[in-house]
Design goal:
Elements: H1 4-18, E1 23-28, H2 41-45, E2 52-56, E3 59-63, E4 68-72, E5 78-83, E6 92-98, E7 102-107, E8 114-118, H3 126-129, H4 142-149, H5 156-160, H6 171-181, H7 194-214, E9 254-258, E10 261-265
Antiparallel strand pairs: 1-6, 2-3, 3-4, 4-8, 5-7, 6-7, 9-10
Helix pairs in contact: 1-7, 4-7, 6-7
The protein binds zinc ion.
Length: 271
Amino acid sequence: MPELPEVETTRRGLSAHLAGLTIKDAVIRNGSLRWPIPKNLPKLLRGQIILSLKRRAKYLLMDCGTGTLILHLGMSGSLRILPANTKAEKHDHFDLILNNGTLMRLRDPRRFGAVLWHVGDVHTHPLFASLGPEPLKNNFNARYLYEATRGRSISIKQCIMDNHVVVGVGNIYANEALFRAGIKPQLAAGKLSLPRCAKLVAEIRATLNEAIKLGGSTLRDFVDTSGQPGYFQQTYWVYGRAGEPCRRCGKPIKQIRQGQRSSFFCGFCQR
Ligand SMILES: [Zn+2]
């Protein structure tokens, strides 16, 4: 599943290819995504100028001035820039035809992605209205996390994976950041001290930034704009390493289930 680093990598990769171009047309081949692609979208998009490509959580926001095209990659989606005459394949459900001889193509085999149009301030859209802060922005900080977790008995791992607390911290990054911060995943969120909140915030950011630098790390069939696979196997501290020796202390990494997700941790290094 594309996580925040893959989406951010996609955004950075596509921005340079899209900004300033005019949309000539849009093609919907299969509009049955997570929500139906609006049937009148080609009509709405024709002649729109792409001002910028932004991101909120795992949504890409294409600002066209009069409205915003909202894109989500779902479980298996990828976006690529291709010559306009490139033949569509089975899972190529949506194209934006651009005025420079290229197109932007959404491929999404599992069809959990989304293509939506919103007029007005996009941050008021119901998808975004109740989201917590971005993990890489300054309003996600030690004081914020401390306040957000007071009185909460939910585990700290489930807490940082909750989009209402902070967006975009997927399972891999939650596991890795907690190890790096020395915090065990099952610790009650409300028991985290302010200094430990600071440490966790710093490690969440570092973990995400490193993954963004590597070009995204989890989606095997991610293809970046130059056609290269964007899948870079990171060396994980704990994720997927149950039973293997901790890279710090050598004791075996443990695995438990929390909220239907696997947690990996070192019982010695994480308290
Ligand atoms: Zn250890």
